Amino acid sequence: MMEKLFSDQKVNSGRQAELDLAKCSSIFFMIFLHCYFAMSYFEYDISLFLERGIAQLVGGPFAAPVFMFAMGVGMVYSRNQEPRYLIVRGIKLLQLGFFVNIGEFFVPYFLSGNLMNDWERFPIANGLLLFCIDILAFAGMAFMLTGILKKLKVSTKGMVIVSIILSIIGSFARFHDFGSNVANLIAGYFVGSAGGFTAFPLFNWFIFPAVGLLFGEYYQRCNDKKKLLSLWPVALVISVAYFVISWFIPNGFLSEMHLYWFMTTYDALSCLICVYGVIGACLMITRHLPEGAVKFFSKTSSNVNTIYVIQWFIIPITYVLIVYFNRTIVFGDLSLIVIALCEIAVSTVLAAGYKKYFQ
Hints:
By secondary structure, the chain is mainly α. Helix content is 70%, strand content 0%. The protein has one domain (18-358).
């Protein structure tokens, strides 16, 4: 059975439409979540259904884990997999992550302060948030760690084992206070420390690109992707059931965002099951999409990093300006959906323009 499912040679080369759709959906879901975050700094009143669905489900397990897993698969499909290339690219992504922090934290801080004389609404922790770890900074560290492990001749299966060990360590070390903001910031690169300086600590999240690497190696040789992903509905039912149940359990996985960001190994396993389900669903969807839509997702998928950078600059600006011109506004369900859809459209268009004219 396994011999029929997997070939000795690569049979799936080049861009894979279902992976492109998965990456695009993950970045779009993140934009919805980030609009919710920006909105939460102001007066708002949204339904519990939308809050759960956007902030804790769609914007959580269906977003970052899918993005990171697809990043690992993408390493396999990349033309350059040399350790030095991965390490250098990781350094560039880490720097890009710091640049994103300017848009996410410092732009709204200075804009709100200067326009509305409100310097407390967007705290920047005395400038330390410039160095906090968001998803691009994590991606940079994951690339560097992958390059180092490749340099040490660690096999892909060995990397998965390393990632599980790191995940277990991260599970026990989360929320530890290392004694100062600076110490918590530094430790936050690796584990979910106290102080709110990291969303994606390396130890807790490296399991996604690592398993993505292993999946990608098999995926390239898969003779029947539909058969490989045939259990995707079951995977989605199991994982979503786990997520929903966690809402009602004290300290449950999705009961608050920091428990999601500092997820345990059990939580990561549930997210990996969800990722499998998402890719299977995307495979089914892409087989019914017109060619133009497939090309759109392919092009957009290649721009996800640029989209991510752009959206973190325009989302806070949008909300600050809306409140500046309408101080009495109370954001609701409709405004969140409309603003998020507009931010998705604008970020996607600007990213495509940047690639066309500046790259």
